[in-house]
Amino acid sequence: MTALVIRLRELLQRFFHLSDWQATLFWAAVVGVVGALATEAFRWTLHAVETFLFGHGGGLVAIARGLPWYWRIAVPTMGGLIAGGLLVLAQRVSVKKATSDYMEAIVVGDGRIPMAQTLARSGSSLVSIASGASIGREGSMVQLAALGASIVGRLLRFPVERLRLLVACGAAAGITAAYNAPIAGAFFVAEIVLGSIAMEIVGPLLLSAVVANIVMREFPGYQPVYEMPPFPPIFGVEVVLFALMGILIGLAAAFFLRGLQASRNLFTRVPVALPLRLALGGLVVGVISTMVPEVWGNGYSVVNGNLRDTGPWLVLLGLLAAKGVATLATVGSGAVGGVFTPALFFGCMIGALFGTGMQSLWPLGTSAPFAYAIVGMGSFLAAMTQAPLMAILMIFEMTLSYQVMLPLMAACVTAYFVVRSADVGAMYEISVRRRKESDARLQLRKLQLRTLVEPAMTTVGLDAERPEMMDLFHRFPVKYLYVVDSSSHYLGVVSLKSLSGGSLESTDARHAADFLSQEVSPVTSGMDLAEALRRFMEHRGERLPLVESTIDPVLLGVVSKSALLQTYFKLSA
To answer: Same domain for 208 and 250?
Structure first.
C-alpha cells in the first residue's frame, strides 16, 4: 500500500511537472482537508457523547444549569477519574523516543507522532471536556489534525524536514478549523512553534489553513465560534485607555501563569495515582459549579453572552474568580486540553470589567464595555502565548473590523512586554525555550573575551635564551611561549617543536627572536564568544593569547578553550 502511494505521488509530480516547492504546496492543501476532517470528527464525537450522557448537547453551561447540585459535583469528579485512567493507558502504549506533542515533533522531533498514544490522550481529553472540565477543546483538535498530517507524510515517505513542515501545516489547519481564523492559525504555528515567518514556511501554512477553513464552511450547522458585535470607532485619548488596560491584563496574565505553575506543583505533591489526581481536580470544578455553573467547559457561551450584553461588574468579577480557580484545578491536576480558549475567556472578563469601570468614570468619552472585552481577549492571549502578532491577527479575523486594530495593537503589545518583564514564562513551553535561546544568543553577542582572561605565565622577551625557554616548557604543560617587546606588545610565539632539537646544555646562543613565529593569531578583548569559538576551531589548541586590539596589541593574558566552552554552554542551557 505504501509503495503504491509513493508511486502515485511520483507520477503526479512528473505528470504535472511539479517542483519540490509546488509539490509541498499541493500536499499542504491535502493536509488542510485532513486537518479539517479530524477537527470536525472530534467536535462531532464530543457532541455525541454529551447527547448520550445528558440527553442533549446544547452546551456544557446549559447542561450544568439543568443538573441538581449533587450531579454537578459527581460528573466532573467521575469524568476526571476516567480521563486519568485513559492517561495511564496512554503512558503504557507510549513509544520510546517518540513524542505525542505536535510542537515537540515539529521542533525537536522527526515529525512522527505516535497514533495509539495520541488517540488515548485525545480520548482522555474528550472525557474531561464532556464531563465539564474547565479547559479548552482546541488542544486535542490541533493534536489530531497534526496526527493526520504526520500519517500522510509517513505514508508518502517524506524526508524529516518536509515531514515536520507537513505536521506544522496540519496544526495550522487545526487551529483554523477550531477558531475560523486561517491567517492567525498559520501565524500561530509560524510564530510560536517554528519561530519563523519566512515565506517558504508561511506559504504552506497559509494554504493549509485556507483549505481547512473552506472545508469547515461546508459542514452543516457551521457558524463562527464567537459572535462579535460591530466594533465602534476609537478616537483620540481613548487609545491610551486601551494601552492602560494592556498593562492590567499583562499583570493578570503574569499572575495566572504563576498560578498554573503553582497548581501543577501542588497537585504533583499529592500522593495519589494519576486518575485520583484528575478526579480531585474535577471535584474542585464540581463544587464551584454548584454556585457558578458557568465554570463548566471552555467558556464559549459565557463570552458570547457578555459580548452581547455585559453584566454587572460584581457578576463579572465572580465569574472571573470562579473560572480562574476551576481552570487552575483542571490544568494543575494534569487534564489534557488547551488553555487557549480559557485565555480568551479571562481576557474578555477583565476587558469587560475595565470597560465598565471606565464608562462609569467617563461615560461620554469611552466606548461600550464590549469593545474593551474584545480587545481584552486578544491582549490576554498575546500575554499568555508571548505571540502578539498571532493574537492581533486572530481578533482582527474574528471581528473583520479595521477599527479594532489601533486599540488592539496598543493593548496586545503593552500586555506582551509586561509579561516579558515579569519573566514568568509562557503558555507553551516551546515559547519559553525559544526565548531562552534568543536571550542566550544576545548575551553571547554582548559578552566580551576580556571577562574570561587569565594570567599569561609563559611570556618571554625577544632576548630570552633557549635554556630559559626550555625551563618554562618543563614547568608548564603548554605548546607555545608568547613573545612580547618592552611595551608588552604581542609579537608572536615560540613553539615547543622549534626548540625540540638539541639538548638543554647545548652551546646554542640563539634567542627567542630567532625562533619567533606567527602561527598563532591572538584574539582581541572586544571579540564576542562566537567569533572566539571559530578561532579555537582553527587553532585546535587549549589557549589563545588575548590582546587589547589589533591596533594596540598589548598582551592582556590568555583565554582557555575550557573556560570559553563552559561560559558558552552555561548561557545556552
So the answer is: no
